[in-house]
Amino acid sequence: MEARKLGLVALLSSLAVALPLLVTGVAQGHGSAQGPFSRTYNCRWNENPEAPTSGGCKAAIAAGGTQAMYDWHEVNIANAAGNSRSIIPDGKLCSAGRDKYKGLDLPRTDWATTKLTSGANITFTLKATAPHKGSFELFNTRNGYDPLSPLKWGDLDASFAKVTDPPLVNGVYQINVKLPAGKSGRHLIYVVWQRSDSPEAFYSCSDVVY
C-alpha cells in the first residue's frame, strides 16, 4: 500500500510539472510582421514593454498592459476560416477584435514607422515562432487614410499581394512583393495570414511612411 501511495504522489507531481508546460505550449502564438515591423513586434523587440519609447507603444501598453506585447505573435482568431472581413469589426482590425490587444487599435500618429518607396519591390518578412502552411494577404490603406481615425475595412485598398506557402528562411517567411504605386505620407500595411491546415488566422498592422 505504501508503495502505491508513493507511486501516486510521484504521478501527481509529474503532472503538476507537465500540465503548465502543455498549457504554455498551446497558448504560444505563431508570428507577426518583422519588416516592415508590426506594432506588436516593434513594441516587443525594437522597444521594451517595460520601458517603451514611442508614443504609440506607451499608449498601447497603458490601455492593454504589457502581456499583449510579450504575446506579440498571438494576434489571432482560432476559427476565422477565411471570414476575417465579416468577423472582425471596423475599428478593431489591428487587435483582431480581441480585448487583450485593444491597445493596437488606438488611432495615433506616433506609432513607430518604417520608410518605404511607393511602387518599389521589397522582401516583406514575417517572423514565425511556429510555421504553418497557408496564405498571406497584404493590404495597404487608401489614399486619404487618416491615422487619427479608427481603422476600418473600407480604409484598405484591394490586396496588393497574396502569396501561398512562401519560403521560410531561419524562421522568417520571405515574401517578395511590389508595393502599391501612387502612395505618399503615412500609411498602414495590414496582413492576414490564413492557415490552410486549420481555420486559425493571424493579423498584423505595420505603420509605414512612403
UniProtKB/TrEMBL annotation:
Residues 1-29 form the signal peptide. InterPro entries: Cellulose/chitin-bd_N, GlcNAc_Chitin_IntDeg, Ig_E-set. SUPFAM superfamilies: E set domains. Transmembrane segments: none annotated. The keyword rRNA-binding does not apply. It comes from Umezawaea tangerina. Pfam families: LPMO_10. This is Chitin-binding protein. Gene3D superfamilies: chitin-binding protein cbp21. Keywords: Signal. Residues 30-208 form the Chitin-binding type-4 domain.
